Amino acid sequence: MQFASTSSYGPSKPNGAVILPTPDEALIDSIIDGDKSALRELYARHRESLIRFLTRLTRKPTLAEEIVNEVFLVVWQRADEFKGHSRVSTWLFGIARHKAMSAFRRPREVQLDGDFAMTIEDPSDNAAAEMDKQDRSKVLQQCLAKLPAAQREVIDLFYFQDEPIEAVARRTGVPLNTVKSRMFYARTRMAELLNEAGVDRAWL
């Protein structure tokens, strides 16, 4: 699934009246009901302002992009936690700031494929822990295989080959915004698949 360019105001009615944009709160209600088009509209509406905010906060544009994706994963998974005590944009910025602070508190993790992760020695490992690693790696690969080929490609390049998002765009020959869209929906779908499989989604 890809983002479509939409106008916030939409077409005019035949009598000349302008169709007003759907309020953010209504979009949240639709997202709670599983409406991905509402998620896409909310993403398109607030993405740029969140990117600017996070870039100023982190001074790392690539990290800002990653955090924005994380923010909308939270929205998709936990939209029902929005209680309407503030504006939706305020809620989004609060999530973004929390994610940014968490990113600064933890060391930057290198994204590894399952086979390479298995080669890292852990003195506390035992047979059960080793089997758990193997099971998680197998489930991860099975979930990745369920993604559309275009989404699987950007996930592989970005996470497992450690390519910057701009390099992914060059490698795939598609516009940067299309790569970002594919990444967003790939992460969203992977979160769903891993949740269904009962696997920790920390790698996302």
Would you summarize the structure shown here?
The protein is an all-alpha fold. 65% of the residues lie in helices and 0% in strands.
Structure description:
- Helix content is 65%, strand content 0%.
- The chain has 204 residues and is mainly alpha-helical.
- The protein has 2 domains: 82 residues, RNA polymerase sigma factor, region 2, helix turn helix motif (Rna Polymerase Sigma Factor, Chain: A, Orthogonal Bundle); 84 residues, Arc Repressor Mutant, subunit A.
- Helix 1 packs across helix 2 and helix 2 packs across helix 4.
- The chain starts with 23 loop residues before the first helix and ends in a 7-residue tail after the last helix.
- The relative contact order is 0.10.
Radius of gyration: 19 Å
Arithmetic mean of pLDDT: 76
Question: Poorly predicted ranges (pLDDT <50, ≥5 residues)?
Answer: 1-13, 107-131
Overall helicity: 55-70%
CATH topology assignment of the largest domain:
Arc Repressor Mutant, subunit A
Rounded to the nearest angstrom, the distance between the terminal CA atoms is 18 Å
Structural class: mainly alpha
Secondary-structure element order, as H and E?
HHHHHHHHH
Q: What CATH architecture of the largest domain would you give?
A: Orthogonal Bundle
Name of the top-level CATH class of the largest domain: Mainly Alpha
Write down the domain tally: 2
Number of strands: 0
Question: Strand content of the residues, in percent?
Answer: under 5%
Q: Tell me about the biggest sheet? A: none
Note the overall shape: globular
Fourth-level CATH superfamily of the largest domain: Winged helix-like DNA-binding domain superfamily/Winged helix DNA-binding domain
Q: How large is the count of helical segments?
A: 9
